[in-house]
Amino acid sequence: MSRYDSRSGDPSSYRDRRSDSGFGASTGYGGSVRSSSSRNSYEVVESPRKLDLDGLTPFEKNFYVESPAVAEMSDREVEEYRLQREITVEGLDVPKPVKSFRDVGFPGKTLAYLLPKEITKAGFVEPTPIQAQGWPMALRGRDLIGIAETGSGKTLAYLLPAIVHVNAQPILSPGDGPIVLVLAPTRELAVQIQNECTKFGASSKIKNTCIYGGVPKGPQVRDLQKGVEIVIATPGRLIDMLDSHHTNLRRVTYLVLDEADRMLDMGFEPQIRKLVSQIRPDRQTLYWSATWPKEVEQLARQFLYNPYKVIIGSQDLKANHAIRQHVDIVSENQKYNKLVKLLEDIMDGSRILIFMDTKKGCDQITRQLRMDGWPALSIHGDKSQAERDWVLSEFKAGKSPIMTATDVAARGLDVKDVKYVINYDFPGSLEDYVHRIGRTGRAGAKGTAYTFFTAANARFAKELISILEEAGQKVSPDLAAMGRGAPPPPSGHGGFRDRGRGHGSGRSWN
To answer: DSSP strand E in 2-129: where?
Structure first.
């Protein structure tokens, strides 16, 4: 019995619709036809995925029914919509984007009624670009590559089709593992995904759990043993659960790799390969990344079959244009005094996120800030999960409006109203720079990022200038000179300009 029959009350249930196995005319990465547009320049590529389906129970994954309003869109209207929203698509038979929630066509009476209401209640006025194009792609049951910056709404772009997918599958039996598996690089991102999953899966009574390290295994084991349809996990802890036989991946038919680029950066490729090897080959796989380096593309070629590809904005690395970026050329020993002066200028009770390179540096600067009367707490990988959760709750509530962090918070940290991001240490890559500053300027809000840039960072100057120029930001003469290979300016030269004055001098925290 499918979940449509048992819970939604929709007798049609889509059970008589043939699943799209993806083994017909092929596009993308498996026996594929790739294109730079949606209609031409195709290149055939042999499929890397072994499709031995003997003994596997067939399942449904194509649920998309195009609404009349979408069907009536002309090719020109579709192209104009994509152009306005910087949507680029690749693949054969790419569905048209949906302009409104009512046109998405979630199957089942309950889902079709409740999901748009929940989306609207969450503050979305219309689908974001990745949702507008990603939903019809994912609902068709095809593999999907989605490239979009953080804060673009991509979590819902894969979660809502996941809920539809779960509702169409037979109900879990005792001993069954999950139907949907979402892999994420960090605990923070995994918890954030779970929060969204709980919010939007409640109407379908879909159970989920979050599997990550740094906390006791007991509660997670109990969740898995009771049976959950959706598991959100970091790779290491999930492998522990599999090795201990607390769950299995035999029923996974919908796999999501979120922030695949970050997972590769963190060295998770062997774990990802081990996990994917235990999942049936005819699964639906959705592969999400903010950037598209060669390593990510190579992994996608091995894991995906016949995919669509949707890119929001340019594939080239770029920063959110809603963020005002300031770069100050400093020496290493100037940093702390510059930080205090900056905080005095901008501190108005808003949330300020300060990034450091090392855990030790994070603790040292936090300790010094607190000794100087600033309300700062820190978060990094050496802290227990309970402490990390407490620090995040204090930061989100505004009780401690300054939080220092290593790159553990660069991705997956979704805190509303982070007004300022400060790069005390410049990160090890421009991708991490873009993700760090992306913690502000989210969901249509404006934000400001300040970056300390030293002689040791000079190798990044040229690429940083490109990011600043693409976003319409001013490039200081000192940074421009470094980009041309000139030595950094004398110590003490430079500084942030055009800063809004805050209430730093009147702070009362101890």
So the answer is: 32-34, 43-45, 87-90
Q: How many residues are given for the chain?
A: 510
376-424, pLDDT tens digit by residue?
999 887 888 788 889 988 998 888 999 999 887 655 566 778 999 999 9
Residue 430 has pLDDT above 50, yes or no: yes
pTM, 2 dp: 0.67
Describe the crossing of helices 335-346 and 359-371 by its angle, rounded to 10 degrees. Answer: 60
In whole angstroms, give the CA distance from residue 359 to residue 361: 5
Average pLDDT, the chain: 82
Q: Burial letters for 45-59: b for 16+ Cβ neighbours within 10 Å, e otherwise? A: bebebeeeeeeeeeb
| CA gap 173, 196 in Å, rounded | 25
How far is it, in rounded angstroms, from Cα 487 to Cα 500? 30
* DSSP alpha helix (H) spans, 347-417: 359-371, 385-397
Question: For residue 172, is pLDDT > 50?
Answer: yes
First to last CA, the chain: 60
Residues contacting residue 142 through CB under 8 Å, at least 6 positions apart: 20, 22, 91, 284, 306, 307, 308
- List pLDDT tens digits, range 488-497: 766 555 566 5
Measured from the Cβ of residue 44, the count of other Cβ atoms closer than 10 Å reads 10
| CA-to-CA separations, 43 to 31, 49, 92, 307, in angstroms, rounded | 10, 18, 11, 14
Helix count and strand count (H, E) for the chain: 18, 16
pLDDT > 70? residue 28: no
Q: Are 180 and 252 a contacting pair, CB within 8 Å?
A: yes
435: enclosing H helix or E strand: helix 430-437
